[in-house]
């Protein structure tokens, strides 16, 4: 089978590629199709937010009848997100962008905020339920995800008001026996240590989203419920993790620092320890969601410029 070759998209327009993830049963090969479309065409799609994982561990998929290689973590995401009864339309950066074309990368990154904002929902893929203690952590995470979904459904159907229902749920968490409570905190700690929380692109992807779900293995929970749970469990969080939770779709986004000051300097200071494969992305990933540099004409992402020029442009913008 020949290797997939990208055709250049129209860089003078708002064109993007979307991915058809073909329906199939678990265990069947992953088969996908790409198609080009204007960003504002109105085609419903979901956008994936994930950590690429080890770039040395590649898995083969079929893309438009030809072979393509993706990282193992992305392969697991597609495997778990594939539906049995219908195709699923996704935007996935590693596949929808030709990563070997710097002009295209810059063109697509300039549209990232809109891509994630226009998505029906953003899927935060945290990986599969694995651990150094395989027999323990997966069952804890499964039970924890079930409990969060129970809470979500109760809040959604509550007839006594959100605040009263939240108070009842806080009581439920606090009244859990010691072993159960410890298990939930252990599961939460495991999820918050996943690599997704260490990557700088995660910030723009969830900050731009109108709606998002956290997915681990075969289970998911809406972010608007997920972000409430740490405080209910009285789980200790680092400032960085709290800042990440604050930008997710949900109540914290309206109540936290995000509702106030979010200029480029503030974002760079808050998220300076987050990682990116390309050092330029430490800046480019935050431009679109900043309050002062989101205008692409002011300081556009440009992968044809070396790192030194990107740093100089950023310094000039921040100073002047």
TrEMBL record:
Residues 45-205 form the Heterokaryon incompatibility domain. It comes from the Eukaryota. Coiled coil: none annotated. This is HET-domain-containing protein.
């Amino acid at each position: 089978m020949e290797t997939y070759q990208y055709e250049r998209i129209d860089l003078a327009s708002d064109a993007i590629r979307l991915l058809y993830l073909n329906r199939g049963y678990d265990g069947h090969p992953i088969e996908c199709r790409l198609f080009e479309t204007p960003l504002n065409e109105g085609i419903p799609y979901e956008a994936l937010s994930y950590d690429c994982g080890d770039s040395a561990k590649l898995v083969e998929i079929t893309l438009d009848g030809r072979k393509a290689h993706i990282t193992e973590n992305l392969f697991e995401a597609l495997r778990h997100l594939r539906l049995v009864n219908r195709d699923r339309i996704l935007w996935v950066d590693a596949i929808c962008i030709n990563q070997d074309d710097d002009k295209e990368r810059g063109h697509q990154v300039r549209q990232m905020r809109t891509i994630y904002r226009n998505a029906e929902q953003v899927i935060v893929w945290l990986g599969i339920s694995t651990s150094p203690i395989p027999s323990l952590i997966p069952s804890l995470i499964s039970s924890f995800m079930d409990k969060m979904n129970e809470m979500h459904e109760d809040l959604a159907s509550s007839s006594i008001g959100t605040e009263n229902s939240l108070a009842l749920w806080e009581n439920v968490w606090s009244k859990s026996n010691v072993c159960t409570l410890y298990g939930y905190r252990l599961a939460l700690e495991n999820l918050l240590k996943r690599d997704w929380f260490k990557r700088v692109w995660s910030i723009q992807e969830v900050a731009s989203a109108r709606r998002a779900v956290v997915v681990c293995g075969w289970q998911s929970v809406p972010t608007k419920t997920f972000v409430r749970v740490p405080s209910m469990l009285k789980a200790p969080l680092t400032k960085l993790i709290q800042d990440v939770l604050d930008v997710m779709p949900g109540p914290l986004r309206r109540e936290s620092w995000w509702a106030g000051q979010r200029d480029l300097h503030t974002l760079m200071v808050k998220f300076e320890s987050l990682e990116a494969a390309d050092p330029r992305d430490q800046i480019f990933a935050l431009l679109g969601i900043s309050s002062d540099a989101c205008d692409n004409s002011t300081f556009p992402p440009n992968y044809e410029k070396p790192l030194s020029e990107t740093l100089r442009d950023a310094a000039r913008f921040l100073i002047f």
